[in-house]
Structure prediction request, 246 residues.
Amino acid sequence: MKLLLLGTTGYHPNERRHTPCLLLPECGVMLDAGTGFFRAFDAIETDRLDVFLSHTHLDHVVGLTYLFNLLQCRPGLSVRVHALPEKLEAIERHLFSEHLFPKRPPYEAVPIADETAIAGGGRLTHFPLEHAGGSLGFRLDWPRRSMAYVTDTTATDDAPYREHIQGVDLLVHECYFGDDAAGWARKTHHSHTTPVARLAKAAEAKRLLLVHLNPLSEADDPIDLETARAIFPRTTIGEDGMAIEF
Prediction:
């Protein structure tokens, strides 16, 4: 299974990274729709795209306004957007307000189910995360592989969502800050390096991929990878354009 990282920063794009967007091209599954969405145009390998939104902060949903270009490039592609009902309503009312973006793209809004079947005999489930306004994490399971996506929350050793990520082959987790900004992580409901690595170890994940990095840094290593690897050796910093096989 291949995961494409189309956007790996948060809040706003910078010269190196776009905001959250992950694509499983063989499955037609996208996780969040940030500014990296435009990179999916040539990468989707299916006739249907299912977009699952963790929440509706602008850095995670603005890519939905790019759908017209996607559909022009991919005639016949059907698009479904899955989110909690109140999040879908917020998108309809605000993102596609006549004063902001007056023409709604042709997609189907789908209240997210407790379990959704995905290509390859897989299933996607979701779990709540603590974040301002609320957020969801996702777990994707196939017969011989699994992954989880956790963004916009504060990692702790005893995070309530640990049970939902237990034993995954690939844990994709936000790491907005390094440990030197732990106070900012708590203040903004985001995560920093050491607790994320500890959580991956406690959950017995096979690999850890760090995303939703602070856009104020365009460095190769904005979160001190050595610290993370001292706790959880199989840690990688996500980079826009990266393809991960798991």
